[in-house]
């Protein structure tokens, strides 16, 4: 995912300390997260940013919903209402077939009878929910997301619900796999690349 912002606008970033910091894997610099940073500000080749949490042990928030039960180990600035939560269960039939006593399945999809409510049928909703929860409250940029299907569907759902400006870039070959949970919101736009484009072309354009 890449982030486009209007250079003529400024962001009023939160000043309150968070439960984590960002650490550059190249120079080991550590700094507070402003909610939109994607790379180290120091002058060196780009490197991945690592999240360093203040707590050594994971604390579960049982009152929170979905993935935000684990918010103390997520790079987020706030809690959001979320129904996206996988189901983990022991598979008796497969256990017998493979002679494995402890075979467990993690299911991320749409199975309302078992309380699994990923509206787009993909675990990518977990990514979309946490990305939006990391953004500043007064975010005025545009999320630009390259996708081959599932990620676009997840961000379309989340950004439509929250009215977050979002530009989705997908190759035409991915359109058949897109499953939107409802009409796109007014803040969401879809850019479709003509054949023979693929996912790498979507990334380049984004």
Main sheet: strands, sense, barrel: 4 strands, mixed
Question: What is the percentage of strand-forming residues?
Answer: 15-25%
Mean pLDDT: 88
Q: What's the count of strands? A: 11
Distance between the termini: 8 Å
- Enumerate the strands of the largest sheet in spatial order, edge to edge or round the barrel: 1-9-10-11
Oligomer: single chain
* Unreliable parts: 1-16
Morphology call: globular
Helical content stands at: 10-25%
Structure description:
The protein has 206 residues and is of the alpha+beta class. Helices cover 18% and strands 21% of the residues. It has four helices and eleven strands, in the order βββββαβββαβαββα. It has helices spanning 92-98, 124-134, 150-162, 199-205, and strands spanning 2-4, 20-24, 30-31, 49-53, 87-90, 104-107, 110-111, 116-117, 142-146, 166-171, 188-193. A four-stranded mixed sheet has the order 1-9-10-11, with helices on both faces. Strands 3-2-4 form a three-stranded antiparallel sheet, with no helix packed on it. Strand 7 and strand 8 form a beta hairpin. Helix 2 packs across helix 3. The longest helix has 13 residues, at 150-162. It is globular. The termini are close together.
């Amino acid at each position: 995912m890449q982030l486009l912002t209007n250079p003529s606008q400024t962001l009023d970033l939160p000043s309150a300390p968070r439960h984590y910091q960002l650490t550059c894997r190249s120079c080991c610099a550590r700094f507070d997260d402003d909610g939109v940073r994607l790379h180290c500000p120091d002058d060196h080749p780009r490197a991945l940013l690592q999240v360093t949490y203040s707590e050594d042990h994971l604390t579960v928030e049982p009152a929170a919903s979905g993935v935000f039960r684990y918010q103390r180990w997520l790079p987020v600035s706030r809690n959001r209402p979320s129904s996206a939560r996988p189901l983990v269960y022991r598979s008796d039939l497969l256990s017998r077939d493979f002679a494995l006593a402890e075979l467990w399945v993690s299911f991320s999809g749409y199975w309302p009878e078992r309380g699994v409510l990923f509206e787009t049928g993909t675990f990518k909703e977990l990514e979309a929910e946490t990305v939006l929860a990391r953004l500043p409250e007064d975010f005025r940029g545009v999320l630009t997301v390259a996708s081959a299907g599932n990620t676009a569907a997840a961000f379309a759902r989340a950004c439509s619900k929250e009215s977050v400006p979002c530009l989705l870039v997908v190759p035409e070959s991915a359109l058949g796999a897109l499953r939107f949970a409802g009409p796109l919101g007014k803040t969401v736009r879809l850019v479709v690349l003509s054949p023979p484009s693929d996912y790498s072309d979507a990334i380049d354009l984004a």
